[in-house]
Specification:
Layout (H helix, E strand, L loop, with lengths): L1 H4 L6 E4 L10 E8 L4 E8 L7 E4 L9 E7 L4 E5 H4 L4 E4 L5 E9 L2
Antiparallel strand pairs: 1-2, 2-3, 3-8, 4-7, 5-6, 5-8
C-alpha cells in the first residue's frame, strides 16, 4: 500500500481528533494534497475503545467538488461532496479493536 499512499505524506496535515495516548479512544488524521485534490484519512480504533464508529469533519476540501473514496484493505467505496465531508459526515467504522482504517480519496472524474 505504500506506493498507493506515499505521495499523500507530502500534503497538508490535519489532525481530525484531539491527540491522545488513551487506549479507549479513536485517533484520526488526514493528509490532503490541494494541488491535485487527493489525499487520505487514517483512523485508529484503540484496543479498549467502546465506539465502533467515529464521525469526522474533513479539512481542506472544496465544498462544491465531489470526491471518490476507497478503503484500503476493505470493501468500502463511496463518493460524497466536499460540503458533506466538511460537516462531520465522514463515518469510519470497524468491529475490530484495535484496528486501523485507511481511506484514500481523489476528485471524482
Amino acid at each position: 500500500h505504500w506506493r498507493n499512499t506515499n505521495a499523500n505524506y507530502y500534503g497538508d496535515y490535519y489532525p481530525l481528533t484531539p491527540y491522545s495516548r488513551a487506549n479507549n479512544v479513536w485517533i484520526a488524521w488526514q493528509f490532503h494534497r490541494p494541488e491535485v485534490g487527493a489525499g487520505m484519512v487514517q483512523a485508529f480504533r484503540r484496543a479498549d475503545c467502546p465506539a465502533a464508529t467515529i464521525r469526522l469533519k474533513l479539512r481542506g476540501l472544496k465544498p462544491d467538488t465531489r470526491y471518490d473514496f476507497k478503503q484500503l484493505d476493505g470493501p468500502n467505496e463511496f463518493s460524497a461532496t466536499g460540503a458533506d465531508l466538511l460537516s462531520e459526515r465522514f463515518s469510519v467504522s470497524t468491529s475490530q479493536s484495535p484496528a486501523a482504517v485507511i481511506y484514500t480519496y481523489s476528485i471524482q472524474k
